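2024-03-11 09:14:02 DEBUG pipeline.ingest accepted 1 chain
2024-03-11 09:14:02 DEBUG pipeline.ingest length=192
2024-03-11 09:14:03 DEBUG pipeline.predict start
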Amino acid sequence: MILPIVAYGADILRTTGKEITPDYPNLGKLITDMWETMYASSGVGLAAPQINKDIRLFIIDSAQVFENQDEDEKGKYPDEPGIKQVFINAKVTALNGEEWAYNEGCLSIPKIREDVMRNESVTISYVDENFKPFEKTFNGITARIILHEYDHIEGKLFIDYLKPLKKKMLHGKLTDISKGKVRADYKMIFPK
C-alpha cells in the first residue's frame, strides 16, 4: 500500500525515533509498504518519520542511482552498483573520509534540491528486517543516502546543513511546503 509522505513542518520530522523490537506490530507489512511508497515517489530512500512513524527504521536503494546515471558518470563512485537494504535501530559509529558536495533532495521537502557536504564513508551498526545484527562501512552515494535517511531518524533534515543565507533564501519555499501550497507527484500529509 502506498502511504502518504509527511511534509516539511510536521513535528514528527524533528523527532528522534524510538528503537523497536521484533514484535513491533505489522513490521513486515510496514516495510513492504515503505518500499512501495518509496518507489512510487521516485525516491532512493525513505525513513519511518516520513510516513508518520516515530521509529528507527529506514530503507535505501542506491542501486537505482547507478541504473539511472549517465554514461559519463559510470565508474565514478566506489559503491557501484549500490545496495538495497533495510536498516532498523541504526547507530552511526564512525564517519571517515573527506567531506564532498552532492545535490540532495527529500520527499518531505518537494521541489527543493541543494548541495550538501557529507563524509565519504560511514560505519553503521543496525539490524536488518530479520533482526540480524550488522556493523558495516559504506561509501560513496550509498553512504550519502544512508546518512540522509539516518538524519531523519535523528530528527534532522538535509536543509539543516545549509548556510544561514541559503536557508533564508529558501524560507518562502519552505513555508509554502508547510502550508500545503506545494504539490508533489505523490500523496502528502501537510502539517495542520
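2024-03-11 09:14:41 DEBUG pipeline.report The chain has one domain: 5-185.
2024-03-11 09:14:41 DEBUG pipeline.predict end
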